[in-house]
Amino acid sequence: MSVKNMNSGDGETSYANNSAFQKVVMTKTWPALDETLKDMLTTDEYDFTKCMKMADLGCSSGTNTLLVISHIIENLSKLQEHAPREIQVFLNDLPDNDFNNLFKLMSTNTNTNTNTKNNIECYIYGAPGSFYGRLFPNNTLHFAYSSTSIHWLSQIPQGLEKNNKENIYIATTSPPHVFEAYSKQFERDFTTFLKLRGEEIRGSGRMVLGFLGRSVADPTSKDEFKPYTLISETLSDMVSEGLVKEDDLHSFNIPIYGPSVQEIEAAVESEGSFNLDKMEFVFVPNMGRQRRLQQL
Known about the structure:
Helices cover about 35% and strands about 20% of the residues. The protein is α/β, with parallel strands linked by helices. It has a seven-stranded mixed beta sheet. The longest helix is centred in the middle third of the chain and has 25 residues, at about 175-200. Mean pLDDT is about 80; it is low at about 115 and about 285-295.
């Protein structure tokens, strides 16, 4: 099973035109992003007067990607003598991501080209590949950023088969082994992610990660992912109407996982490449979901 990319292009059903929620979540990470960059550039760890290298992991396509780059350039310029003269930004996502549309948008957006007003030159590159695999040589990056991506698992957890029945994710009615399968898959994936980034990011480098999470340790005690429950109920109705095969519904599970605070802390401590400086819980109002923000 391969995890697919978001819908390409700029049409009605494209990710580019259906990512307002992701934009809101991304802006919620900016206080941590700004604080981290300021702290990095005003210490004596690096000489950033030349070139700073960073990556956006799980960048997808569309204007959200341009927005985060523009925001970074704007905030770096405020640091004046501490600001780097050049930055390299590596945009990472799965190989099937719509990089063509993304770079077309950039060619018409002056904020992601050379910032002549503040004398910061920005060079942008595509870096296709799964972030659960190696992406860069050792000690390449100073900084990595990711928003609404890392809750996507590398695969559907093993052992689910048809045991989750009419649910497409962990629900209050899911058997205990369904939760265990999802939890173990996240632990494997997140540990791998941390290990690989620990090899690619230089000593004293930083990451800011924003992704879906939950507020309770037991996911079956509270339905915090109501949209997936509603989708499950809709699909069940479609089975009753003969529009969807029952076997297809019973074997379908979404490869995402919202970890608890305890799971995140345990994974970071166990893997050992990073220290967890800050972790914030952010509720996005009127959107029906919750996101958890980590700064590593």
